[in-house]
Amino acid sequence: MFPELVDHFQHILIDNNASWLRLNFSRVYQISFQSENFIDLQKFCNDIIVKHPRMIFDSDDFNILQENALIALLKNDNLQMEELEIWDKVILWGKAKTANLPPNLKEWTDDNFKALKNSLLNCLPHIRYFQISGEDVLKKIKPYRNILEENIWDDLMSKLIAPNLPITSLILPPRKKTTVQLPPRKVSIITPSSSIITLQHAAEISSWIDRRSAIYNDTEIPYEFKLLLRGSRDGFTGETFHRLCDNIPGTVVAAKVNGTDEILGGYNPLIWKVGNGYGEFATTADSFIFSLKNGNINKSILSRVTKTSNAIYYGSMSQGAWFSNSAFGCHNDANSWYHSSGYGYGPIRSINEWFSVDEYEVFQICKI
């Protein structure tokens, strides 16, 4: 009975929740390889990946991809990606799986190369080495020649020097290039996947940006939420915020409050920057702060700026994003966030106080 239930579950996901699957694509793809019963889910994902491989190769979760999932990609003749890029990604994946590798390749010992070779033992045979240009072979593959089988490297050199002479290595065919594309995307993809906001949250925020009275349908969202910063990955300091987010117009800040289900955030249509002297304000009528429906938070709260001349505050390098100078924002770490009503925005939570966050993310909002 269990296989039938799994099959039924897969088809519900694929037929009715395609937008959710795309939003959480990397995680779903990994799960699809955890059981042979998920064959339909694997096929659904593979049909997308062969045309849009960066959804996996550029994802935050790529380095923890299971070996069998990566091998399935490497074996696919229709993977729409240059072989040199595939090689680079496989090397990065292998390094992530291999402990105690020096960051400087010049410092590697024979044992380091043997360890990496062992990590990539089942992946390397599926690289199409002979489809990589001679210049790139010397530039990108030669530094790692010690992880290759000896005949592979000898035959690569032979092809460069005397291309018409026979070789012993199996030459895998080039990957098939295709002009076939997926249907135009009608949903925004939060790239990479967010650990805070959902597709439904993105629809709600997008509707507020466009001042719509009705919330966008999940398939109608006109924006892509491009991740610029994740606190747990990049750091919670003001310096990190300014390094990654300054001078980029149209951003959303979202924070998960510690110990509650609250998701607080704000939208700034202007840029972020470090202020002069004692700080400075920027004027806009289009910024807002919010609290999103989540868990036991049954209703989202939108608070648009009321004092437009004080909408955005540019503080010191140690301060992160601030809406007005006290309405909502962060100082210099995960424990120094603050919200207070009456500073150009209405309330988005019941009390005015400092609080800590478990996570926060900043997204650039890009029109599709």
UniProtKB/TrEMBL annotation:
<dbReference type="InterPro" id="IPR006571">
    <property type="entry name" value="TLDc_dom"/>
</dbReference>
<dbReference type="InterPro" id="IPR011705">
    <property type="entry name" value="BACK"/>
</dbReference>
<protein>
    <recommendedName>
        <fullName>TLDc domain-containing protein</fullName>
    </recommendedName>
</protein>
<feature type="domain" description="TLDc">
    <location>
        <begin position="195"/>
        <end position="366"/>
    </location>
</feature>
<dbReference type="Pfam" id="PF07707">
    <property type="entry name" value="BACK"/>
</dbReference>
<dbReference type="Pfam" id="PF07534">
    <property type="entry name" value="TLD"/>
</dbReference>
